[in-house]
Design brief:
single chain, about 650 residues, Rossmann fold, GMP Synthetase, Chain A, domain 3, 3 domains, seven-stranded mixed β-sheet, four-stranded parallel β-sheet, 33 strands, about 30% helix
């Protein structure tokens, strides 16, 4: 893209004061590595991944023992499959650490967490107070017999207590998993029942959109259906009273068990198109160093900063936000609707709490643009240095709106990655210009490429599959309950051999950036939350009037909307009442995010010769793209039922 697309460039002073510049100087002085610009630094990081990730550990002063070995990879003679070698590569194999210790830091009076709720509740915790809360939760967990490897689940809003539960579990070596309280009973059980949690934390209610939503009935049903639970903890005022040293003898300092680099930290959920949601196990050390690189180098987060991301506990950005504590920054949490009591609420939060990094979704930016908001005219926003956007593609007009209506001197970093790696494949560069519609850079340590179906690299501007050609430390450790890692390998390494295949359409740009144009697989992605079609089918296809259904994602401004097509029993009609039944069942049993925006009837659904529905072919038709490999379809003529549908205009 020519310089006509340039929207912002950092001042020389800002570049000189950036973490990225400090890291390059440190590499030169301590390691003898000359990397004067981002391109040379990125090239070194992918050519020497072991030394790069060790340098991130050392420069960020990770608490723990790094060990001497930097990388361990299987020999080609013993593991000839390059994709399998990529999957089995381990970074810092001798390192030992505790991630909770690294996030909590020292028990000082520095601010650790700032919390605001749409109903007016507010709280701020120092690092010392967060230490205290974490220690008290640990006493509760220890009382319940929780130890290393046990699972601790949270069906909780985005509150400080949720973070304390995570930190307490991680300190003990337990595995933490969360989902948001807007999920229905079935949606929660589809996730938590797979990992057999020992303790479940939940709130009695949560505010959203001016209403208080009760959770108690759903919580009773969820607890009853999880037989491995030793305790269900209702988080409400006074819930930690009595927990401390000797149960009432005062607070106990947190326990930080030193654990291997690959010890499991989180289970996150990324839904596929068949079966229940995939339970992705993320390794502690790998995720910590990946997040440190993203926060400190790509986002320029510094000690004392105040970092905000609008997220729920069911989106990986909650986990990403929690890790900003390891930078010495404060995490700003908001629970509730971003548009209550008005669309300016989150910009009020910037001024109220001094946010330096404002994280949001392309959908939110698009909604502000459509509403005609101009926060720069009504707000101060002087603290704001960085805006990050993810969840879906930030269109060029979204870039324009930020610089015209929010702030002219701000680093707008469109970033993209996913739940699968709990981080970014492509991200920002605070030392480089921002160009309209572009993600600035590949992630450091990430050998990112855009390829055709056979894995050949494509030139700039050509759309293809987004892949990573080399291993990285936040590769999932495994999927839960996946004998032989069969589902894991099929998810990322079998579509295109020898690389991590992410499932996004993308193109590179002449300036070294990227444009993400949507999902290339059949996973749905409304608002950045990945949803598997199998979850929807299991609720819809049991309705008496419906033979079967097929769900696809359709671009909708800066977001994606779910479109559901249903094949009806002969003699039945798709009435408003039936549409209402479908939506209410999905909302009640799964979540509001699963509810389709459009429901339409079709006479037939295309399938492969082996009988599998071809969701990607349907999606390509409604998006106006050519359908690949129709020769593999048993009934390609069925695609005509989906073409030029007036409901989708």
């Amino acid at each position: 893209m020519s310089d006509s697309g340039l929207l912002w460039a950092p001042s020389p002073e800002r570049v000189a004061g950036s973490n990225l510049e400090a890291f390059r100087a440190w590499l030169r002085d301590r390691r003898g590595i000359d990397a004067p610009d981002f391109s040379s630094l990125h090239r070194w990081s992918v050519q020497h991944p072991g030394p790069f990730w060790a340098a991130v550990w050392d420069w960020c002063e990770v608490a723990g023992d790094r060990g001497e070995r930097l990388v361990e990879a299987p020999a080609e003679s013993l593991c000839p499959d390059p994709g399998e070698r990529l999957r089995r590569t381990r970074f810092l194999p001798d390192a030992r650490l505790n991630v909770a210790q690294n996030l909590l830091g020292e028990p000082s009076n520095d601010t650790a967490v700032i919390f605001r709720s749409e109903d007016g509740e507010a709280a701020e915790l120092t690092r010392a107070e967060l230490h205290d809360m974490t220690g008290r939760v640990q006493q509760l967990l220890i009382d319940a017999g929780v130890g290393p490897g046990d699972r601790v689940a949270a069906w909780m809003p985005n509150r400080p207590e949720t973070g304390a539960v995570m930190l307490a579990a991680a300190g003990l070596g337990a595995v933490f998993s969360s989902t948001s309280p807007d999920f229905g009973v079935t949606g929660v059980l589809d996730r938590f029942s797979q990992i057999s949690p020992t303790v479940l934390f939940a709130c009695a209610d949560y505010p959203y959109g001016g209403r208080l939503h009760d959770c108690t009935e759903r919580l009773a049903a969820i607890s009853a259906a999880l037989p491995t639970l030793r305790r269900t903890v209702l988080v409400e005022p006074g819930w930690l009273d009595g927990y401390g040293a000797g149960f009432g003898g005062g607070p106990a300092p947190p326990v930080f068990r030193e654990l291997p680099f690959d010890h499991p930290w989180y289970v996150l959920y990324s839904s596929g198109t068949t079966g229940p949601p995939k339970c992705i196990v993320h390794r502690a050390g790998g995720l910590l160093v990946k997040h440190l690189a993203e926060h400190r180098l790509h986002c320029d987060v510094k000690p004392g900063d105040r970092v905000f991301y609008f997220t729920t506990t069911g989106w990986m950005m909650w986990n990403w936000l929690a890790s900003t504590l390891a930078c010495g920054a404060a995490a700003v949490l908001y629970d509730g609707s971003p548009a209550h009591p008005g669309p300016q609420r989150l910009f009020d939060l910037v001024d109220e709490t001094g946010i330096t990094l404002f994280g949001t979704s392309a959908k939110f930016i698009d909604a502000c643009r459509n509403a005609g908001l101009s926060p720069r005219m009504s707000h101060d926003l002087s603290s704001l240095r960085t805006i990050t956007s993810t969840g879906s593609t930030l269109v060029a007009e979204g870039f324009d709106w930020v610089y015209e209506n929010v702030k002219t001197d701000v680093h707008l970093a469109s970033i993209s990655g996913g739940t699968d790696l709990c981080g970014c494949l492509v991200a920002g560069d605070p030392t480089a210009p921002v160009r309209r519609g572009e993600i600035q850079r590949p992630g450091l340590g990430m050998d990112i490429d855009v390829v055709d179906d056979s894995g050949r690299s494509l030139p700039a501007g050509a759309e293809g599959e987004l892949v990573c050609r080399s291993p990285f430390p936040s590769l999932p450790l495994r999927f839960w309950d996946d004998p032989g890692n069969a589902r894991y390998r099929a998810a990322y390494f079998e579509r295109i051999g020898g690389v991590w295949h992410h499932g996004d359409f993308a193109s590179s740009t002449p300036s070294g950036g990227f444009v993400i144009s949507g999902r290339s697989d059949s996973t749905l992605n409304p608002g950045g939350v990945r949803i598997g079609t199998a979850e929807i089918y299991s609720r819809v296809d049991t309705i008496g009037e419906i033979v079967e259904s097929i769900a696809v994602g359709q671009p909708d401004g800066a977001d994606t909307r779910i479109v559901l097509f249903v094949k009806l029993v002969p003699g039945c009609e798709l009435t408003d009442e039936l549409r209402g039944l479908i939506r209410s069942r999905i909302r009640a049993e799964l979540s509001p995010r699963h509810v389709p925006a459009v429901i339409a009837a079709v006479d037939d659904i295309p399938r492969t010769r082996s009988g599998k529905m071809t969701e990607t072919a349907v999606r390509d038709v409604i998006c106006g793209r050519p359908v690949r490999n129709t020769s593999a379809m048993a009934n390609p003529e069925a695609l005509e039922h989906f073409r030029n549908r007036p409901e989708l205009a």
